[in-house]
Write a structure and sequence with these properties.
The chain is α/β, with parallel strands linked by helices. Helices cover about 55% and strands about 10% of the residues. It is built from 15 helices and 8 strands. Strands 3-2-4-1-5-6-7-8 form an 8-stranded mixed β-sheet, sandwiched between helices. The chain starts with 6 loop residues before the first helix and ends in an 8-residue tail after the last helix.
Length: about 400
């Protein structure tokens, strides 16, 4: 059943890719408007052939679509492999759960133990079990085996991401990236910058973690790697002064997305709160028309400690989204479910490796499919995606030509 809920999203992505076709064709129309009445130009067959004809454009967009599909399938395969340790950590107990003949208190107790073992946390586990009990009663389910798909569905629903979660990427936006040292904060900024630029965005970085010279140097390295400009001062500079310079530069350069690296020092919450508050005031005063997005980066290998970090940061500043890194080497993959469920803040990106494309938008369905890949759960998303893409590619309504 997984994947059906994403059909609309896949169609939107494909439509966006094929939108390049309309843009290319529109360019031909726009060119004619650039000439005055005295310089009228007729586009004959040779003119069109010298540019790109319709078939060539369609072929190019099909290649783009296929490339993007392969990337998604490749990322899912890497995610599935990366979550192997997490699956193994609760595989035996989860499989044994459904050998029970009936659904009784012992069944629910064993389920609770298994979910907590998977690092979902006590609060999230209780929510899942409460939901399951309601559904079991409503559907008059008697056998434990019949609960398997229900449990996975409930877990997936705990992780839903709103359709507007990524709207900020298409607005003039200042992104404040927060988190403690060592979680992959600076690296995540570099990867996002590279991806945004590849998508045609004008991107700027700001090194506002001025308490560590290494953080500034690392961001400069990523700036060179991504081909993105950076605003930085020396170690010990006022972080808000860096933000001021960065905001001024973003406005003057008509930047689409400004990514700001910040210091994470949870041992002094008051200073952290004052510092982040000052940065936000500078942004609001100097760049009131910009959207402000606050993303916290958490290390997936730290399990419940990551959840505690998120709690502490959320107590001193607003958080709009979560980036979870290092999921490729952890047995604590269930923490992504716990964080979103308990904090009611969406996980927006996850990282499963060192390469730029190893940081991707979070897809709850893919994540649950990967986490429960070995438990005889319906997870034919890749087959569904392929068939849907073929259907969309053959839909002539997508081409306004």
């Amino acid at each position: 059943m997984f994947g059906f809920g994403k059909k609309k999203k896949e169609e939107e992505n494909i439509t966006s890719d094929y939108g390049l076709l309309n843009n290319n064709i529109k360019d031909i129309d726009d060119k004619s408007e650039d000439y005055s009445q005295d310089e009228k130009v007729i586009f004959n067959d040779s003119d069109i052939n010298e540019s790109k004809n319709e078939k060539e454009i369609i072929k190019e967009n099909e290649e783009i679509t296929n490339e993007d599909t392969e990337k998604k399938k490749g990322f899912f395969a890497r995610l599935k492999e990366g979550l192997t340790k997490s699956r193994n950590s609760f595989a035996e107990s989860f499989a044994n759960l459904f050998k029970a003949n009936e659904i009784d208190d012992d069944f629910y107790d064993e389920l609770e133990e298994t979910l907590v073992m998977a690092d979902l946390g006590v609060e999230t586990t209780e929510k899942i079990i409460d939901d399951l009990k309601v559904k079991v009663k409503e559907q008059k389910i008697k056998e434990a085996e019949a609960c398997k798909q229900l449990i996975v569905n409930i877990i997936r629903d705990q992780m839903s991401v709103d359709d507007t979660a990524y709207d900020f990427e298409d607005k003039k936006t200042v992104v404040l990236v927060i988190g403690v040292n060592g979680v992959g904060k600076t690296t995540s900024i570099g990867k996002l910058a590279a991806q945004y630029k590849k998508r045609g965005k004008k991107v700027l970085m700001a090194a506002a973690d001025t308490f560590r010279a290494a953080a500034i140097d690392q961001l400069k390295t990523w700036s060179n790697r991504a081909g993105v400009d950076i605003i930085a001062q020396g170690e010990g500079a006022d972080p808000s002064a860096v933000v001021y310079d960065a905001v001024s530069a973003a406005k003057s350069r008509n930047t689409d997305i400004l990514l700001i690296d910040t210091a994470g020092r949870l041992h002094n919450k008051k200073n952290l709160m004052d510092e982040l508050g000052k940065m936000r005031r500078v942004i609001s005063r100097e760049y009131p028309e910009a959207n402000v997005e606050s993303l916290i980066v958490l290390d997936g290998t730290t399990g419940q400690n990551a959840l505690e970090q998120a709690r502490q940061f959320s107590s001193v500043t607003e958080i709009n989204g979560i980036i979870i890194t290092k999921l490729d080497g952890t047995a604590k993959g269930g923490i992504a479910i716990a964080i979103q469920s308990e904090l009611n803040v969406p996980v927006k990106y996850i990282g499963i490796g060192e390469q730029v494309d190893d940081l991707q938008r979070f897809d709850p369905t893919n994540y649950v499919n990967a986490l429960f890949a070995d438990f005889d759960i319906k997870s034919d998303i890749e087959i569904i995606v392929d068939s849907d893409i073929e259907k969309i590619k053959n839909d002539d309504d997508l081409f306004d030509v």
